[in-house]
Amino acid sequence: MKKHILPAIKLTVVMILFFTVIYPLAVWGIAQFAPNAGKGEIIEHNGKKHYVNIGQSFTEDKYFWSRPSAVDYNAAGSGGSNKGPSNEEYLAEVQARIDTFLVHNPRIDKSEIPVDLVTASGSGLDPNFSVQAAKVQVARIAETRGIDEVKLNQLIDEQTEKPLWGMFGPEKINVLKLNIALDQLK
């Protein structure tokens, strides 16, 4: 037993040193070469600073709505819901989101609503949504802003981020960048 305790204590001390000092310093050092020194991409719009990589709340009819957040877009407390797909409270919450969306988008059928517009992401801070989530909102925004739907669809195409190397992950759109570009349309 004595022969196993000393190596275990040494290994524990080495791992504590590695994972609490060396590894964090290495990650921090690498992050210094990233844009904005690893603090995330920041956009300034209308005198306010916004983090591009953290979901923002957009609920006005003149904007593309964001993906719902289980943590009310609070970056200090990332997290999702622990409610399963058969939980009655969760189903009622999703149905309320569907109903709200249909009230504001009367030309859309319930079957056309993408899941990412009525369910929160695992982190509750997802800044992106699907291309389909943007396209189903075009009619409402065109009517509210008096902009041609073709122009809005072109904007969506311009803001669409392709999958990594053309094959890893889906196409996606950053909602904040899309809405800023929408504000800049003439």
UniProtKB/TrEMBL annotation:
Keyword Transport found: yes
Record membrane topology: Single-pass membrane protein
InterPro entries for this protein: KdpC (IPR003820)
Pfam family of the protein (one): KdpC
Any one Gene Ontology cellular component term annotated for this protein: plasma membrane
Keywords in alphabetical order: ATP-binding, Cell membrane, Hydrolase, Ion transport, Membrane, Nucleotide-binding, Potassium, Potassium transport, Transmembrane, Transmembrane helix, Transport
Subcellular location: Cell membrane
Molecular-function GO terms, alphabetical: ATP binding; hydrolase activity; P-type potassium transmembrane transporter activity
Domain of life: Bacteria
Transmembrane portions of the chain: 12-31
Function: Part of the high-affinity ATP-driven potassium transport (or Kdp) system, which catalyzes the hydrolysis of ATP coupled with the electrogenic transport of potassium into the cytoplasm. This subunit acts as a catalytic chaperone that increases the ATP-binding affinity of the ATP-hydrolyzing subunit KdpB by the formation of a transient KdpB/KdpC/ATP ternary complex.
Assembly description: The system is composed of three essential subunits: KdpA, KdpB and KdpC.
Similarity section: Belongs to the KdpC family.
PANTHER family per record: POTASSIUM-TRANSPORTING ATPASE C CHAIN, POTASSIUM-TRANSPORTING ATPASE KDPC SUBUNIT
Name this protein carries in UniProt: Potassium-transporting ATPase KdpC subunit
Provenance organism: Chryseobacterium koreense CCUG 49689
